[in-house]
Write a structure and sequence with these properties.
By secondary structure, the protein is an alpha/beta fold. The chain is built from 21 helices and 16 strands. Bound molecules: adenosine-5'-diphosphate (ADP), magnesium ion and zinc ion.
């Protein structure tokens, strides 16, 4: 557990030290400086001094006489002597022309004394420390220091200006476009208010680590020129019970006061974990739930018109509690995916701006060498290259520095298992083109919209997206079969080109089998069973799980029928690819290079 400084304890220690210092001051320092030095003298000495004309002034009190004498240096020296019964004293003083109107400093009233020597130093001391710590904080954090609020000791980071803009975020055009609306709203909330438009309260940035989610959130604040409040979900979980909820409350209170502004909750999955799915960790769940509930309450309670927009980031959206995703909460989702080739090159260039680069650097070559790398990895590569240049005593970065640092950083993520080898990348390219090509060569398939071999948040290594032209409610037997063949296309391409198979088709197998099964058991699309009901859907609201209505013998026959459909779809896919082998190679090469291609590009290469 992280040790948090307890605010009460800190204040107590601080008070004790102050008291100690004031006591020391009073015991040793003040007496020496503030109290006048008074020397005791006998009455005879006093009289001699008076007669000799050394005494400057005299004050007669009830039981003592104080007097000042000018010494050789011309300074007044204070003396005190006991008062004797001396009726001639006044005459003597008069004759010696001693001034006895002037009052010799004496002790102040006890109250004034107390104020001067105890309370005042104490206050001054506190003021100085406050001033120093305030300045220090500002200096350390550059204005973005953690702010502490009230009892909760919340570490909410506030930046009046993040200094980041969309220009600092390379690639991620879709995410930037989606967030532009938020920027626009924060710029000119009046425009939206007048028309009565509701702006999203919460926007969820979803993507793998290091893809620039935090950077994007800061850029939104920077573009809108509004303050940026941020807090990390993982900090909540490490807190004492009740503290997390208090922090959330503080966060929203502060934000509302500073509106328009951005509130950014990083790693929201650590508090927003689905309540029934959060298995492990006894004791921790309670706190998480309280914090989550507080977050939900605050989000419902405040008025988005005020101009507070909440951004949150996660790389595990599937674990989030459904309650967080309801309308009026984080109902907007912005995917932030790993960059493709062009994106990687752009990110390298953005980071290279901050570094002295030599002539003729080939960023494209570096981008090519780093499939699967995130923005953070690429930033790291540029930095490693700069470090290497310094180590080798150069004043600028060369291509070789970049190439070397690719290996250093890639070795780093090979450990993390995130990078894709060139061979795997090629296999994935053929696999995806296999899907796309089979789809394109069948008459009942939806057109290919996009093909990518950039790994997805979902864990997929590649992805072929088809979009139907109109909305479809019904599926024909031909369409169902074409769909299954399309799913077979990935594996079929691997077999054709590499004469082997990989584990990459597991999701295809699952999806294809689902359709084939439904064709047989629910849609009446097999000759063998005609329109016989074989299966029933239990409760469509509970994920639509099904149970068979048939005997074990029939059940085995169903399996055979499903297998027959899948086999014939597989054969068809293989045949299509065999017939279009040249295009398969061409398209796979093209996809391998570009990593993401649109449907138009695909059709252009296919048609040429
Ligand atoms: P995330 O929050 O998604 O884990 P960050 O925003 O913290 O990622 O990114 C870490 C760093 O990586 C950033 O500070 C930036 O230097 C770099 N980076 C990531 N994505 C990009 C991008 N698209 N453009 C420029 N730099 C990026
Ligand atoms: Mg982050
Ligand atoms: Zn596939």
């Amino acid at each position: 557990m992280k040790t948090e400084k307890n605010p009460q304890k800190t204040t107590l220690i601080y008070l004790l030290i102050s008291v100690g210092i004031v006591v020391l001051l009073n015991a040793f320092i003040f007496p020496a400086f503030l109290r006048p030095q008074i020397t005791e003298a006998d009455y005879g000495t006093f009289l001699t001094q008076v007669e000799q004309g050394h005494v400057k002034s005299v004050e007669i009190r009830e039981d003592e006489i104080g007097f000042t004498v000018k010494d050789e240096k011309g300074n007044d020296k204070l003396y005190v002597t006991g008062r004797l019964d001396d009726p001639e004293l006044v005459d003597r003083l008069y004759q010696a022309k001693v001034e006895f109107s002037k009052v010799i400093p004496r002790e102040n009233s006890p109250l004034v004394n107390l104020l001067l020597t105890w309370v005042l130093p104490f206050l001054v001391f506190i003021a100085i420390v406050q001033l120093l710590s305030g300045r220090l904080l500002k200096k350390l954090g550059g204005g973005a220091g953690p702010m502490k609020f009230g009892k909760s000791n919340a570490k909410i980071y506030v930046e009046a200006q993040t200094g980041k803009t969309f220009g600092d975020v390379a690639g991620q055009d879709e995410a930037k476009e989606a967030l532009q609306e938020v920027v626009d709203f924060l710029h000119n909330p009046q425009k939206y208010r007048e028309i009565g438009a509701k702006i999203p309260k919460g926007v969820l940035l979803v993507g793998p680590p290091g893809t620039g989610k935090t950077l994007l959130a800061k850029a939104v604040a920077g573009e809108s020129k509004v303050p940026f409040f941020s807090i990390s979900g993982s900090e909540f979980v490490e807190m004492f019970v009740g503290m997390g909820a208090a922090r959330v409350r503080d966060l929203f209170k502060q934000a509302t006061a500073k509106a328009p502004c951005i509130v950014f909750i990083d790693e929201i999955d650590t508090i927003g974990k689905s309540r029934n799915a959060s298995g492990g960790g006894i004791g921790g769940n309670d706190e998480r739930e309280q914090t989550l509930n507080q977050l939900l309450t605050e989000m419902d309670g405040f008025d988005a018109d005020k101009g507070v927009v909440i951004l949150a980031a996660t790389n595990r959206p599937e674990t989030l509690d459904k309650a967080l995703l309801r309308p009026g909460r984080f109902d907007r989702r912005v995917p932030v995916e790993l960059p493709d080739l062009a994106g990687r090159e752009a990110i390298l260039r953005v980071h290279a701006r901050k570094v002295k680069m030599g002539e003729g650097i080939d960023f494209n070559a570096i981008a090519r060498a780093t499939p699967g790398a995130s923005g953070a990895d690429l930033a790291n590569i540029v930095n490693e290259a700069a470090l290497r240049a310094v180590k080798l005593g150069r004043s600028h970065v060369l291509q070789s520095d970049l190439e070397e640092s690719v290996e250093v950083v890639i070795a780093g993520y090979q450990r993390k298992n995130a990078v894709i080898s060139m061979k795997d990348k090629l296999t994935i390219a053929y696999h995806e083109v296999g899907h796309a090509l089979v789809a394109a060569k069948q008459s009942h398939s939806a057109p290919v919209h996009k093909i990518t071999i950039v790994p997805r948040t979902s864990g997929a290594l590649g992805y072929t997206m088809q979009i139907d032209e109109g909305e479809q409610v019904l599926m024909t037997k031909e369409q169902a079969f074409d769909k299954i063949s399309t799913y077979m296309g990935g594996r079929a391409a691997e077999e054709l080109v590499f004469q082997t198979v990989t584990s990459g088709a597991s999701n295809d197998i699952e999806q294809a089998t689902k359709i084939a099964r439904a064709m047989v058991t629910r849609f009446g699309m097999s000759e063998q069973f005609d329109m016989m009901a074989l299966e029933t859907v239990n409760n469509p609201y509970l994920g639509g799980d099904t149970s068979l209505l048939v005997s074990a013998v029939t059940s085995a026959k169903i399996d055979e029928e499903v297998l027959r459909i899948i086999k014939s779809a597989h054969e068809r896919a293989s045949r299509i690819l065999e017939e279009n082998k040249q295009k398969l190679h061409e398209l796979a090469k093209y996809l391998f290079e570009k990593e993401t291609i649109s449907g138009e590009e695909f059709m252009a290469v296919l048609g040429a």
